[in-house]
Amino acid sequence: MPPSSPSSSPDGYDLVLRLLLGVLAVVVPLANLAWLSGNITAYLTGTSWAPYQPTDALLRPDQVWPAAGATSLLIGARAVPAVVVLALGTGAALLWARHRNQSGRRKKVTDMASARDIEPLMAKATTAKARSLRPSLKGTKHIEAKDAGILLGNLQGSRRHEVRMGFEDVAVAIMAPRSGKTTSLAIPSMLSAPGPVLLTSNKAGGDAFTTAYEARARAGTVWTMDPQQIAHAERQMWWNPLASAKTLDGANRLAGHFLAASVDASQQGDFWSKAGSNILSQLLLAAALDERPITDIMQWLAFPADRTPLDILRDHGFAAVAAQLKGTVEGPPETRDGIYETARQYAAALLNADIAAWVTPQKNAAEFRPAQFVTSRDTLFLLSKDGGGGASALIAACADSVMRAATAQAERAGGRLDPPMVAILDEAANVCKISDLPDLYSHLGSRGIIPITILQSYRQGQKVWGDAGMDALWSAATIKVIGSGIDDPDFADKLSRLIGDHDVHTTSISHSESGKSTSVSMRQERILPPDAIRALPKGTALCFATGMRAAMLDLRPWYLDPNAEELSAASARASRAITERAIAKATPTQSDFGPAA
Questions:
Q1: C-beta separation of 241 from 293 below 8 A
Q2: pLDDT confidence bin for 395, thresholds 50/70/90
Q3: What region holds the TraD/TraG TraM recognition site domain (predicted)?
Q4: How much is the average pLDDT of 371-377?
Q5: Under the phi-then-psi rule, with left for phi > 0, alpha for psi from -120 to 50, and beta for the rest, what region is 260?
């Protein structure tokens, strides 16, 4: 006897049964619709109402309504029911697909952190923490959200669960261009900051500068340092970088900013870089001690034989530093010239009179004093172009001096600034290369100084601070925000491993002559594999907080806030002002063509 064919197996009966059920699911509603629609048609055409005969109405409508016309029956009993059933089927299919997609998204949210998992970042916890951290809030019954912490976004899929970093957290955000780093992080942080705000940026039009300028001007004075005229801002301020360089440590820090702006971390340890930085440090110290403008060091670098810096150092008790400087000056000419040329390259931006005017005394401009700024509600915009060299060194030096002044003020005030200062270091790897920023992260949060360092990629940070430095910055950050556009496979895999695994039930079906058997097994898979992290949609971000599970966030860009229309108008006004200033500078005047005839 021949073996049974596959069609005779139980699976064949299942297939027939499913096919029969599918036919009934279409025919039954179609027949009932044909009877209902046919009766409606008959009523409208003056024909009598037929009794309930759905099968005849579908197959033989002319017998059910013999007095009705053929055309009206074709439309009423055939075409209309078919269209309705088709529309209902299509709608049901779309709803089912949407339901499955939402179920998939909900599953991802469930596998990621829930509101309970990140409770310390929820409103109740951040409000209680703010009350304990800020003495000025202890007697306040109602604390506004902006006084409790910095909004990062909403827990994905939940509009009522806002996720905020507290005023003792320090953050690193790695977000590719056009992934929401400015619209969803920098600008909202500025607008809601309760105290002074510092922002570094490499652009102005249509950015944080234009959007937040008017709003921050209502909170306090707005200071703008724009040495390379990104916003074409009028020079209404000047800052003295030598104010904190009257000690050897302070001069070394200032020289280090020129070094970091000129060479990558991998090159900062070679002989010429270190020697050039040392000479720069010694000359900066001499200029600071004698209360000279910083531009005087360019004359000393041009003429190494000038004994003025040596005499200043000796007169102020820095004999050892003077001896080191003298040893370099009187050393082999080839070595000395190489060292001095290296230092000249580092400080070359000071040769530009337009740039130097921002860091030398000006009669018609107010002096920016970091010590006063950190006790105010003012705003400081520090603007510089990518690859600005010495100009970006001045930006980094100014940001560093503000954070150091804030630290000193916090120590005098009992340990913390109240209100806290928010320092948004946007494009930090391009325009604000503070060499020891990873070390500063270890204590800034405990002083009420909240830095948010925004990078385009992890490798960008490695280029500036080296592998060890970037790892230290990443580890010291209590909040890490990862946006869309992560194309580094190694970093994506690292994030995937940090998020962790989850259990997945796998169903296996086997067939044999005796029938079908089903088995269920369990295995572990990554919650978010690297390819899913790379494909994060715009408007979402991963949040890693110390001691908590990773959470998926829906970002909250500023243009979705209730006052977005007002902010948009303010941004448009500021952008037009930048354009008008740029055109005015580009328009030739009579003096450009010589005296009039």
A1: no
A2: very high
A3: 420-538
A4: 96
A5: alpha
8 Å CB contact between 159 and 433: no
**By C-alpha distance, which of 196, 152, 218 is closest to 417?**
196
Residue 565 half-sphere exposure toward CB, CA atoms < 13 A: 1
- Of 306, 335, 360, which residue constitutes the final position of a domain? 360
Alpha helices (H) in 233-378, listed in sequence order: 248-262, 271-289, 296-302, 308-315, 319-329, 333-346, 353-356, 370-373
- Give the three-class secondary structure for 556: coil
As a whole number, mean pLDDT of residues 315-327 equals 96
Give mean pLDDT, residues 382-408.
88
Q: Which of 130-144, 467-481, 528-542 has the lowest mean pLDDT?
A: 130-144
Render 181-236 in DSSP notation, one character per residue: TIIIIIHHHHHH-SS-EEEEES--TTSHHHHHHHHHHHHS-EEEE-TT-SS-----
Which range of residues forms the domain containing residue 68? 7-111
The first and second tokens of residue 391, run together, are: 């100009």
Burial class (CB in 10 A: 0-12, 13-18, 19+), 505: exposed
Structurally, the chain folds into a number of domains equal to 2
Backbone Cα Rg of the chain:
35
In a domain, 297, yes or no: yes
Q: What is the mean pLDDT of residues 223-251?
A: 94
Residue 454: enclosing H or E segment and its boundaries? strand 449-455
pLDDT tens figures, 525-535 = 889 999 999 99
Determine which of 98-102, 312-316, 330-334 has the lowest per-residue pLDDT on average: 98-102
Task: Give a three-class secondary structure readout of 84-128.
Answer: HHHHHHHHHHHHHHHHHHHHHHHHHHHHCCCCCCCHHHCHHHHHH
Burial of 359 (0-12, 13-18, 19+ CB in 10 A): buried
Token pair belonging to 587? 């328009």
- Calculate mean pLDDT across residues 356-360: 96
User: Which of the residue ranges 1-5, 393-397, 519-523, 562-566 would you say has the lowest mean pLDDT?
Assistant: 1-5
Question: 248-262 and 271-289 helices cross at what angle (nearest 10)?
Answer: 130
CB atoms within 10 A of CB 564: 14
In a domain, 398, yes or no: no
Kindly report whether the peptide bond that precedes residue 419 is cis, defined as omega within 30 degrees of 0. yes
Asked if 253 and 277 count as a contact pair (C-beta separation under 8 A), the reply is no
Contact 385/160 with Cβ under 8 angstroms?
no
pTM above 0.70, yes or no: yes
For the chain, give the percent of residues with pLDDT over 70: 89
Could you give the 3-state DSSP secondary structure of residue 473? helix
For residue 80, tell me if it sits in a domain: yes
Is 321 a member of any domain?
yes
How far apart are the two ends of the chain, measured CA to CA in Å?
120
> Which tokens sit at 149?
């912490």
Q: Looking at 77, 111, 145, which one is the last position of a domain? A: 111
